[in-house]
Write a structure and sequence with these properties.
This protein is α/β, with parallel strands linked by helices. It has 9 helices and 13 strands.
């Protein structure tokens, strides 16, 4: 299979992905970029497209979405219908049942695969396995510095700049968290889909002035035993809302896509 890889989106995560893959001569390189506001002096060696039609004509063997929830419903169905495998970063978009059904139908029609990455959280493989024996409870806690919650509903109820102690800004189900905090929903949705689903997964989101890290905690219990995980992730340079591990997870997924032995 040709490693003809295209990136969709050129924000902080997209740029980190392209830079990491293209500086490693042993990795599949990104050859094309779909980005509406693309500037030619950004990655000048890549094929640049501002329309999906141009990218489809280029015919990638793999597309990597890192453009946000709005792009998922617009760009991914035509790619999947065309038989092009897609790696999905904006997992929270699947919380919209209509979008999820549209993607599933497109993947089936094109005999293509939609690959969901674990992103900034770990333990997803264990959670997926454990649910087959039965899960009793799954709780996710997301703790970030106050500036990471700017522009979210948290800013309307809490003076983020004045916080002196950890403050819970949301408590509820994964479905409600994904609706109210779409820019922070990817980990929440990933945990929910791997375990008990959107309505039975409990979520706590915390603004903590004592940390400069993005901290993710996962607690699950069931017939398998108990899982307790805490990840202290450095933020992605240029984007305090995203963990560096989210970008690394995409990079790993691209590398694995073209390997015959996958771990």
């Amino acid at each position: 299979m040709s490693d003809r890889v295209a990136a969709i989106g050129c924000g902080a995560i997209g740029m980190a992905l392209i830079e990491a893959l293209n500086r490693d001569p042993g990795a599949p390189s990104v050859g094309a970029l779909l980005y509406r506001r693309v500037q030619r002096n950004t990655f000048p060696d890549l094929q640049h497209f501002q329309s999906l039609a141009g990218l489809l004509a280029w015919r990638p063997s793999l597309a990597v979405e890192c453009a946000g929830h709005a792009a998922v419903g617009e760009y991914l169905p035509p790619l999947l219908e065309a038989g092009i495998d897609v790696i999905l970063a904006s997992v929270g978009a699947l919380a919209d049942a209509a979008v999820a059904e549209k993607l599933a139908a497109a993947a089936e029609k094109g005999n293509a695969r939609l690959v969901v990455v674990s992103g900034a959280i770990g333990g997803i493989d264990a959670l997926r396995a454990a649910r087959h024996a039965g899960l009793d409870q799954v709780t996710y806690v997301g703790r970030k510095p106050p500036k990471a919650w700017a522009g979210t509903p948290a800013a309307q109820s809490v003076d983020l700049e004045a916080l002196t102690e950890a403050t819970t800004v949301f408590e509820g189900t994964a479905r409600e968290a994904a609706r109210l905090y779409p820019r922070n929903a990817n980990v929440t949705a990933t945990v929910a889909f791997a375990g008990l689903g959107l309505d039975r997964t409990q979520v706590h989101l915390i603004a903590d002035p004592a940390t400069a890290l993005n901290i993710h905690e996962l607690d699950a219990a069931g017939a398998f035993g108990r899982l307790n995980l805490r990840l202290e992730n450095a933020a992605l340079p240029g984007n305090p809302r995203s963990s560096h591990l989210a970008s690394l997870s995409l990079e790993h997924a691209v590398r694995e896509h073209f390997r015959h032995i996958k771990i």
